[in-house]
Amino acid sequence: MMRPALALTTGEPAGIGPEIAAALAAGNHEARLVLLGDRDLLTQRAQAVGVTAAWPDFDPARDDDVAILHCPLAVPSQPGQLNPANAAYVLKLLDTAIDGCLDGTFGAIVTAPIHKGVINDAGVAEGFFFGHTEYLAVRTGTEQVVMMLTGGGMRVALATTHLPLAEVPDAITPETLSRTLHILHADLKTKFGLTAPRILVAGLNPHAGEGGHLGREEIDVIEPTLAALRAEGMTLIGPLPADTLFNRKQLEQGDAVLAMYHDQGLPVLKFASFGHGINVTLGLPLIRTSVDHGTALDLAGTGKADPGSLQAALALARELATAGADRQSR
């Protein structure tokens, strides 16, 4: 039985994605890794990290350690120089990986960083392009997904993702919060193998609202929603003040944290694990992991970028895909 093939989209061609993918592929001996990108680009960027890119074309019938699925650039790419002409190429890599997961060619997607600004400048996405997470949801017809980062001994999921801070309170409703917790709870069970997940839930306001004196979202929305879900059998602890939630003793009480907004939970996790954190998209009909950093245009082409986060993302994707394949074979 062949190992699940893991699709690695090499991301923004002007960023560090192609070279950290090449560095990772050179040391890969466990995963069946498929690099999605322009062959010439990957060959050039591999040279920056001292790697000879002698990888075969991807053949689903072969169990190669590393292969390339060639997707041509629109125009040649220079390290550090964004070009909107290649924005469609970036989305093509994602579309190819998504379609391959849905038809069973790939067991998971691992994504190198992309640059949201240049994709929006190019106007190649329908509407505003918010990022990988939202794009994957639209392309798979998933009503709601959940962003979760792992690292530093923590799993931190988000009730809202890429929203201006002023829009966060209105986005946290009983319906959206309930769906988020259902997705988080279900994927902790089915993908991470936790039989009875314990979830620590942060409050929205300072001191979790301090009894309504610093905001009523905890009283009006969060507490009633948690009570209803506890009645369904979920183990939910909170709402907890975010400024004291992330201490070792408190974290030991749960398997994951649900933060209410992006910069409430992620600075703590990234401080503890920057360069080795993993972004996981929950709720999708496929497995997707990613790096916890951006395109680092200033490092592109220098060979100095650290592939640690991508390596961690690949390891988790391999673990989840292999476990999923084992369950299906039983």
Automatic annotation (TrEMBL):
Job description of the protein: Catalyzes the NAD(P)-dependent oxidation of 4-(phosphooxy)-L-threonine (HTP) into 2-amino-3-oxo-4-(phosphooxy)butyric acid which spontaneously decarboxylates to form 3-amino-2-oxopropyl phosphate (AHAP).
Binding positions (substrate): H132, T133, K270, N279, R288
Ligase in keyword set: no
Pathway given in the UniProt record: Cofactor biosynthesis; pyridoxine 5'-phosphate biosynthesis; pyridoxine 5'-phosphate from D-erythrose 4-phosphate: step 4/5
Name of the protein described by the UniProt record: 4-hydroxythreonine-4-phosphate dehydrogenase
Subunit field text: Homodimer.
Additional free-text comment from the UniProt record: The active site is located at the dimer interface.
EC number: 1.1.1.262
Catalysed reaction equations from the record: 4-(phosphooxy)-L-threonine + NAD(+) = 3-amino-2-oxopropyl phosphate + CO2 + NADH
GO BP terms in the entry: pyridoxal phosphate biosynthetic process; pyridoxine biosynthetic process
One GO cellular component term: cytoplasm
